[in-house]
User: Fold this.
Amino acid sequence: MAVASGAGRARGGGKMQALSARRGLGPRGMAVTWGVIIVLAVISTFGPAILDLGLGIVFGVIVLITLYTWVLRRISYGSRTVPQWARTAYWLGGALLVIGGMHAPDAALALTGEQGTAVVDGASTGTGAHGMKYTQCWIDLPNGSNEQLPATGPCPAPHGTHLTVVYSPQGIIGPIVGSRSDLMWWWALVFQLVGIGILTATAVLTVSDPVLERPLGRSAGRRGKRPRPRPGTPPRNRRRF
Assistant:
């Protein structure tokens, strides 16, 4: 009997562990996963966009979708449904991070770039992956290197024209035409900070508040309601004789 009861307890414990795994993580686990989500979301929407704006935006969106599908919905919540307000806040914060990453090169050049005078070398024509032809402008930088402007299209001025540019001496970031004061680094800073703030507030609410299993705001409305008496049931405040 003792062996049977021990086996039953083991099976019961296994069922409880499986049930808890399906129901998702607790507050500490969710706090850790939210920290991972926010860090990876910021890095993926900002870092790759510095090197290549187009590919960086696509990569950031893919990472945001992956983080929501696997880390937040499947690991953190498990079988529980992610509240609608949390889904909306997540995608709003992620969208702001992507928008901020659109000017990630400006922010990076504002910190590490140098301002100088470049000379327009000329434009070249190439063929993209989908067979479409494009024009690319090349300029000679003050350090002697020949670099292409990040955006495709004709050169902003004829061959031999001197342009003020902000460039990376190491050649990691593409040069931007204009002075250092023209860089829109504040765009990246504002949108990134607001996006991080929204994601952080969502993380705090989902970890510290019991809205993990019900939409926000419904619990307060349900507290003041009393259950309706069934037909034929006498009122509680009246005595039966």
